[in-house]
Amino acid sequence: MASRLPSPADRSAELAELAHAILADHDLPATAHYLQLFGRVYRHFLEAVPPHQRNRDRLADLFRASIGLPPPHGDARPAPELEREVKRLAGMVAELESQARAWSVERIALEAGAEQGRTVVTNLYHELAAQLAAEQRQLAEREVALQRREAELNQRLAQIEETERTLLPRMTTAARPEMETVLALEGVALRGELMEVTMELTEVVEKLEQIATGDGGSPLVAAIRRLKEEAAAAGIDALTGLAGRALFDRDLGHALAANQRTRYTRATNQTVVAIYLDLDGFKAVNDTHGHATGDALLRAVAAVFGARCRENDRAYRLGGDEFLLLLTDTDAPGAAHVAEVVRDAIRNVAVASDTGTMVRITASLGVADANVCGRAVVRCADLALYRAKEEGGDRITTYCDDAFSAPLPPGVAASFLDAVRGRLERNEPTTVAAVAPGAGEMAILWEQLRDLFPEARIEECGEDIVLVTDGNRSEAVADAIAHGIHGVTATAGATDLTEIPAVDGASPTARLAVLINTPLTLAHEALGA
């Protein structure tokens, strides 16, 4: 209920009491600045508002606008259609949470070939992504409208300032006060509205940034993030519906174990093949056409795998624009054919951007098979992919040891290589040492090394001597050689299994080359020093 306001004839004490009360309502201090501002607003209020329309609430609203605070009952809410959309989205999120309790993404996905489960997850993800895109568009439209209104208000304020500067000095003494009051009140109202528009514009921009970065409190952003996390834990890529990293790790282990068990009993050259695939220039697509177009390309590429791969082949999205095909019960020519079919099909993929531009993409592929690469088949496919990218992309590169690993020393005996290779296959702790003799020292060194390491296998390697012994003890072996040989100028080096790539980090031949070449290199470096 409105209270009585003091008239111009009232005492100043009563007016001061009213000023202190309104300032207190807004948690503002009764400083000289705010009291003077209140006095000016109050004078304009009395001059511009008819007596029967004056009340404390209206005065408080005018004062609030003059200092840039939004009115308590003003139009500070978002656009009605946006408000309705937010309410609808909140209801949808609640429904999704209920669905999450009713069914388990993990249970669906962990069953081999759970195509239906992946379809459910992907459809749900696409629905959420479409709703988020709609919210983003509405916010962007609201941003444009607010920017336009902000410009209009600033333009009108500039016109008022120009009128005050140029027109008022030419007006008569009698007419000037009324015009000053009108202009001042309009300026106060415009500045108040400008503050509201600026505040809402800031809020809209922040929401758009939160959507773009995936942060913040948007219900849809939170729902999408939660779905992606649950799907990833279950081995599903929510965007494409392909199997994800968790299922890939499991399937690769099973495939390699089965390949190893049947390695010596197969009548054919069938093996496990990994095809590592990376899209060329995908970041530029996102930067130029937006992430929605990039997502559409990823889905289109995933569809290629389903249409072009064989029944037993499995496709995985490992992250970003990286995919991997796992081929079982195939041979090298068959794998090469699959890679060519996939590459050619991706060349024909095209999706429309938001502007209607048709966007195309190519891919680079790295191919490796387990008969050559062992448990490092994925690492070797990755190396081949990197080579394909280096050579310009849109091509297929197949891993082979001759092109990707250092050659074995030419002078080492085949029997010695076989002995070391067998130890590597059995993952037995092993140390390889090399000794570079001085002139005429070969015979005496051979006898001294035989005395130092009676259990070791010792062979000549060109002008050098190499030996293999039990245990991962390169430092101990090198120290024993340094202190155990005498009367010679020879130098030595040693390496063990802890100092070379792991079994899944390099092919067996590449690991063998590192294990033998490294001590030879160390020995000759010491000899040269």
What's the short version?
The chain has 529 residues and is α+β, with helices and mostly antiparallel strands. It has helices at residues 12-25, 32-48, 56-66, 80-102, 105-109, 115-166, 176-213, 219-233, 245-261, 282-289, 291-308, 332-347, 370-373, 377-390, 401-404, 414-425, 442-452, 474-484, 508-528; strands at 271-280, 314-319, 322-330, 350-352, 358-360, 362-369, 396-398, 430-436, 457-461, 464-470, 491-496.
Q: Average pLDDT value?
A: 81
Number of strands: 11
How many separate helices?
Answer: 19
Number of domain units: 4
Helix content: 55-70%
Supply the CATH architecture of the largest domain: 2-Layer Sandwich
SSE series:
HHHHHHHHHEHHEEHEEEHHEHHEHEEHEH
What global shape is seen? elongated
Biggest sheet architecture:
5 strands, mixed
How much of the residues is beta strand, in percent? 5-15%
Task: Characterise the protein shown here.
- The structure is a single chain.
- The protein is of the alpha+beta class and 529 residues long.
- The relative contact order is 0.06.
- The termini are far apart.
- The longest helix has 52 residues, at 115-166.
- It is 59% helix and 13% strand.
- Residues 73-79 and 96-113 have low confidence and may be disordered.
- It has 4 domains: 12-66; 80-219; 241-404, Reverse transcriptase/Diguanylate cyclase domain (Alpha-Beta Plaits, 2-Layer Sandwich); 414-528, Alpha-Beta Plaits (2-Layer Sandwich), CATH 3.30.70.270.
- The protein has 19 helices and 11 strands.
